[in-house]
UniProtKB/TrEMBL annotation:
Gene3D superfamilies from the UniProt entry: Histone deacetylase domain
Protein name (Swiss-Prot/TrEMBL): Histone deacetylase 11
Catalytic activity annotation: N(6)-acetyl-L-lysyl-[histone] + H2O = L-lysyl-[histone] + acetate
Entry EC number(s): 3.5.1.98
Gene for this chain: hdac11
Keyword Transcription regulation: yes
Keywords: Chromatin regulator, Hydrolase, Nucleus, Repressor, Transcription, Transcription regulation
Length: 375
């Protein structure tokens, strides 16, 4: 590690491997094969496609948008990284078992992932096969936060665990990656004082809402199906712009509301960065989302958000969050390709940071540094 990288890693109170120098030949797209959860078929017991992140990358490679050399390799968030937000008590719960006689039960992780057989797995396997992938995706979101400030945009192909707060997980969310990415930016990147979360997953983002309930630096817009999990009335107090949808909401109404409220949110408060939770569980037929948005509607939705950010010269970090049909990976890839075709993100090493949003960001002095619930 270079002296410059080491200095970056130490800002904010502890040394981290997540704020690294990224070669200009890389696109600000973060991913690791470690994201994908595969273990004895247990992942198939939850409707979540636990391999969708790898499929997105496969499609983007197939369409020659990225190569292995142009992806930023995500690193696993360490316990010190996680303690920036999470309590020691909560992290300890993820490591420990409930003992009954000679058996050790992984109760907390089984509850969070909603995969009951996880209850009976030894904790070292739970750590390696379930929690490590989620920690790596969490590290990817934190890395993408810095990349968004450096390049004007970044996409973590995973992440978006918006039901997890500092001391409680749920809905397949074990780590609060959105909260962590924002806290890292506040602590380590000079000039980042305000963040706006635009949460367009079908579910209410109660995790980051609980974390930022009393924090005026964070503006939260949340658009979700009012009738589904989590229905967290306490967390809703943190939402500055709340859009509650009915069952079966379709493209026209949805896109009108998204555009109206994204523009309204960014006109109300101009943040230093946007964190965009781009769940695809709004797709028609999703078993958990209960909405009826077409694939084309999802692509258009993402374009609306990125266009609003670009028009204002705002850095944007996108995470992929929920989505419970096999076709969602193709839709996410199509949306990223559309953002490139629309000139809203750059593609290919030749374009690099020189044609990114950097001219618009020069004012920022970056430091060196059973019933399933769902994402």
């Amino acid at each position: 590690m270079s002296e410059k990288e080491d200095e970056k890693g130490k800002r904010g109170g502890h040394h981290t491997e997540l704020y690294i120098e990224v070669p200009p030949t890389c696109l600000p797209i973060v991913y690791s094969p470690e994201y994908n959860i595969t273990f004895m078929g247990l992942e198939k017991l939850h409707p979540f496609d636990a391999g969708k992140w790898g499929k997105v990358i496969h499609f983007l490679k197939e369409d020659q948008f990225i190569t292995d050399d142009t992806i930023v390799a995500a690193r696993e968030a360490t316990e010190e990284d996680l303690l920036v937000v999470h309590t020691k008590r909560y992290l300890s719960k993820l490591k420990t078992h409930v003992l009954e006689g000679s058996r050790e039960w992984s109760l907390v992780v089984a509850t969070i992932t909603e995969i009951p057989p996880v209850l009976f797995l030894p904790n070292f396997l739970v750590q390696r096969k379930v929690l490590r992938p989620l920690r790596t995706q969490t590290g990817g979101t934190i890395m993408a936060g810095k990349l968004a400030m450096d390049r004007g945009w970044a996409i973590n192909v995973g992440g978006g665990f918006h039901h997890c707060s500092s001391d409680k997980g749920g809905g397949f969310c074990a780590y609060a990656d959105i909260t962590l990415a924002i806290k890292f930016l506040f602590e380590r990147v000079e000039g980042v004082c305000r963040a706006t979360i635009i949460d367009l997953d079908a579910h209410q983002g109660n995790g980051h809402e609980r974390d930022f309930l009393e924090d005026r630096r964070v503006y939260i817009m949340d658009v979700y199906n009012r009738y589904i999990y989590p229905g967290d009335g306490y967390a809703k107090r943190a939402i500055k712009r709340k859009v509650e949808l009915d069952w079966g909401t379709e493209d026209m109404e949805y896109l009108q509301k998204v555009e109206l409220h994204v523009e309204g949110a960014l006109n109300e408060v101009l943040p230093d960065i946007i964190i965009y939770n781009a769940g695809t569980d709004i797709l028609d037929g999703d078993p958990l989302g209960g909405l009826a948005i077409s694939p084309q509607g999802i692509v258009k939705r993402d374009e609306i958000v990125f266009r609003a950010a670009r028009r204002r010269g705002l850095p944007i970090l996108m995470v992929t969050s929920g989505g419970y049909q096999k076709k969602t990976a193709r839709i996410i890839a199509d949306s990223i390709l559309n953002l490139h075709q629309q000139g809203l993100i750059e593609g290919g090493a030749a374009e690099g940071p020189e044609t990114s949003l950097m001219p618009l960001l020069m004012s920022k002095s970056l430091s060196s540094g059973a019933t399933f619930n769902a994402i």
